[in-house]
Write a structure and sequence with these properties.
Two copies of one chain form a homodimer. By secondary structure, chain A is mainly α. Chain A contains nine helices and no strands. Chain A binds a DNA duplex through helix 3.
Chain lengths: ~190, ~190
DNA sequence: AAAATAAGGAACCGATCAGTACAATACACA
DNA sequence: TGTGTATTGTACTGATCGGTTCCTTATTTT
């Protein structure tokens, strides 16, 4: 006995993700979101409570999409050498920039922004980055050069690679020149080889 | 025959830097700045034109202070091994967090924020990061393990270390747990050793 | 067809934003 | 001690922020 939604919630979250990805959490105004999502204020607040709740939903969506696809690469048996899997992720980040995507990583942008003062957002960001870190650990287990390292040393290396990833994607967002990115990725390759 | 300023411009910029460092460019409201700098709207606008101009002045000040002191370490003959100089910078960033400073690096926060849409800020950020990069190159020249690398390879490694630095300081700002930071720094040490 | 329910949409809310205008103030010089 | 001038501080501007209210419209169930 209720009028059903004329928009699909998942589609709306996907569209909201695009807006937040481009403008960041604070940079995305409500009008930006409404236009990008194709709905009006009433519908948005009825469906998503408020901006921050929507953003948390978007972060979940981002994890189940961008992060999980990265993790899939890191755990992919199609690439036998785990170090190659890691490099696939890094070169992918580089390629995104050369192909015109300078939005970086939503998690990294959130890390530098609202994570600094909002615990829930900080927690969601940590969770996403932690998933990536675990993926890197799996990849290291499948790398001849690294498989014999202690778990602790592997974990520490994974933490370093996460920091490297965050730095790279933040540089991309800051429009640092692509040669710098290219060099950085290349050096990661040298380090892992 | 003019009434002289009752505040010192450099002091005011220093105080503004503290505010921007804590809150970021967009997160620092004019009332925040006025309170932190100890002046009123009229004085601020007369002396610094507007918020963005003030921020560019602050970035200059930051370079001449935080960045230059980092570069000084990287070029310091007191630490003969250049790799040790680099590690001093990284462990310094880690120690800052353990000592309660979670503000990260003003340049890195600006990179993830206004650099994405403002060319002047992006340029100032690139300049500061470039100075650090050059310092790292000098240090690598003084590292037995790296001094024989080609200039190109040294530069690429420096680019990677800049990305690493940005990632670390962004993690600090996002309040990622200190063990992760510690591990990442430790792994940088292993890589450079 | 009527009743119940929720989506849709627009007008509106107080708060806050960066920036401005102007009068009061304090200093330097004569 | 008066006069000119730049600084200072307050009040204000218009725009925009996130969020709410409420009426209309559409749809499902009885």
């Amino acid at each position: 006995m209720a009028r059903p939604r004329t928009f699909n919630t998942d589609d709306a979250v996907e569209k909201a993700m695009q807006v937040f990805w481009t403008h960041g959490y604070e940079g995305a105004s409500l009008p930006d979101l409404l236009e990008g999502m194709g709905l009006t204020r009433g519908s948005l607040y009825k469906a998503f409570t408020d901006k921050k709740t929507l953003f948390l939903k978007v972060l979940e969506h981002y994890e189940g999409q961008a992060v999980d696809s990265g993790v899939a690469v890191l755990e992919s048996a199609d690439i036998p050498n785990g170090a190659d899997r890691i490099m696939t992720v890094f070169t992918g980040a580089y390629r995104a920039v050369t192909e015109g995507d300078q939005r970086g990583c939503l998690l990294c942008t959130a890390a530098a922004g609202p994570s600094t003062y909002d615990d829930e957002i900080a927690h969601a960001v940590s969770k996403g980055l932690g998933a990536l870190r675990d993926g890197i650990c799996v990849a290291l287990q499948a790398s001849p050069k690294h498989e014999d390292m202690s778990d602790e040393a592997q974990g520490a290396l994974a933490d370093m690679l996460i920091a490297q990833y965050m730095g790279l994607r933040t540089m991309a967002r800051a429009r640092i020149d692509t040669n710098t990115l290219r060099n950085a990725v290349r050096s990661v390759g040298v380090m892992l080889a």
